[in-house]
Amino acid sequence: MSEAKLRIGYIPLVDAAALLIAVDQGFAAAENLDIELVREVSWSNVRDKLNIGLFDAADLLSPVAIASSLGIGHVRVPIIAPFNLGLNGNAITVSPRLFAALAGVADGDLADPKVSARALARVVAERKARGGEPLTFGMTFPFSNHNYQLRFWMAAGGIDPDEDVRLVVLPPPYMVESLASGHVDGFCVGAPWNSVAVDSGVDRILHFGCEIMARVSEKVLAVRDCWATENPDTLAALIRALARASVFVDDASNRAAVAAAVARRLDVEAELVVRTLTGNMKIAPDGTIRMNDRYIVIGRNGASRPDPVQAAWLYAQIVRWGQAPLSEELCATAQAVFRPDLYNAALGVTPSPGDGEPPDGIGAFVGPDFVPRDIGGHLAAWRLKRSERPRLSIVR
Amino acid sequence: MRKGSNPPSHGTLSPGGQRDSTLKIAIVDESPIRAAILEDGLREAGFMQVERIAETHNLLARIYAMDPDVILIDLESPSRDMLEQLFQMSRAVKRPVAMFVDQSDSASIQAAVDAGVSAYIVDGLKKERITSILDLCISRFNAFARLQGELDHAKGALEERKVIDRAKGVLMQAKKLTEEEAYALLRKTAMNEHKKIVEIAQAVLTAAELLK
Fold this sequence. Notes:
The complex is a heterodimer.
Chain A: E1 4-10, H1 17-24, H2 27-30, E2 33-39, H3 43-51, E3 57-61, H4 62-70, E4 79-88, E5 90-94, H5 96-105, H6 113-129, E6 136-139, H7 145-156, E7 166-169, H8 172-180, E8 186-190, H9 193-199, E9 204-208, H10 209-212, E10 217-224, H11 225-230, H12 232-250, H13 255-266, H14 270-278, E11 280-282, E12 289-291, E13 296-297, H15 308-320, H16 328-337, H17 340-347, H18 375-380
Parallel strand pairs in A: 1-2, 1-3, 6-7, 6-8
Antiparallel strand pairs in A: 3-10, 4-10, 4-13, 5-8, 5-9, 11-12
Helix pairs in contact in A: 1-12, 1-13, 4-15, 4-16, 5-6, 6-7, 8-9, 12-17, 13-14, 15-16
Chain B: E1 13-14, E2 17-18, E3 24-28, H1 32-44, E4 49-53, H2 59-66, E5 70-74, H3 80-84, E6 96-98, H4 106-115, E7 117-122, H5 127-175, H6 179-192, H7 197-210
Parallel strand pairs in B: 3-4, 3-5
Antiparallel strand pairs in B: 1-2, 5-7, 6-7
Helix pairs in contact in B: 1-5, 4-5, 5-6, 5-7, 6-7
């Protein structure tokens, strides 16, 4: 096969590691792929440049791939995800003032999201009672796990995320400064920005994303459906390169090399990348460490294989918060975005998720098990939701 | 669409329709020079209600306050994602949509992306009314990029001159050469090695630093 030239857009975050390593460690070249990585500054740019064909493929927020295929809030461009770049990887960070307020009203250990959600509800109610401004939280995009994880956690404590607090989109590089200047009281963002906030000497990581949901698709390799049809061999080669790169990223003996390569692309200290990859996170300026090997999952436990259950879960969040109506047709379209068949065809193996994975494939910290066939029933379990009145129209 | 340097009386409604001069245009650009160039161009073309938004915090609040018909944003601005939140709002404000919503004009979208600009327009605004704005925007962004390129080139040339001058100084001192002889040596070496003079000069400086 002759060499294929590809332009792939990405946002400089640790969860782009498999893509970066595929290029920097030669896994792409071994598949005869000449990849030009294009660093982008916004998810809107990544999505639009993929949609109009300036990129052949992109590192994309998993919910954006679904939103784009459904045509919600934007032009409908069918996107498919034949490879999952990472599971989990986000965290919720709060200002010292908010942490002190939570600690003051907590009825248990704040490391438990049930306790922290109840504490947050008390803080929110107190502020409302004395006529204070609502708390403001930053997240990275309307269609993102950052948005959904914050909402899921808050709603579990009885907070209406649309009425009781403000959720604002902030580009990741602005998060830490916005917290320092008091424009936001907390945020949910990917690595390395939570660690940057902790290292600034004041902020605290309250929760890892995996404490809210144990297994959630965070970033996918996204391509246009029509591009995949026209370039099946190139796509298969890309999937193979990414699969090998993911295994390389996961191998502890490569940690120093991986961290150095990723850190170079991200312009951060390699040590910050190591913290994320090992899940050995400094969560407070006093040096307190919280360890969770699920913090980010790349290349193991079936993480690389796109899972339609994950797509259904993300669609359920989109519906729960009023971004799209509930319908079987839309749910089927959402699930069809994740393409394990293309993954299997390229690699010829079907890895099972492995032990210790949540039985329903998600492992949310509260609520019933997730059943993809019955999203309506699943959503009925929640008191707080917006699905009665979708706010976005479907653009076809 | 009115063009040219005669601005129509601003803010007036012509009988039977809104004049384009009344379109409210917000420019979100972290480069104050480029924003100023764009604003001037829009005013020359008769758009009188143009506002520049440079600071990114409270971006949405400022946009709500202005309630623009068209938002032009630099594609290199991370703040673009903040604008996406506008689509999520159920408030009674005009709802802007990304220009990418209308794919019928993919050539102009491509040109805009190449120039590095994106536009959001209020839903329902006729495409013809935005076309001239977008065209103007693209040409001004491209002109700015050209100027920037020329400036970078000039700066680079100046830097090269400095490197070569310093390398000449090193050679003059170390080998007791005149300035002309030092330059001739650099040039001859560059020709022999198929390299640029500045590369040889840089190598001389690096070597001098190592041998200090």
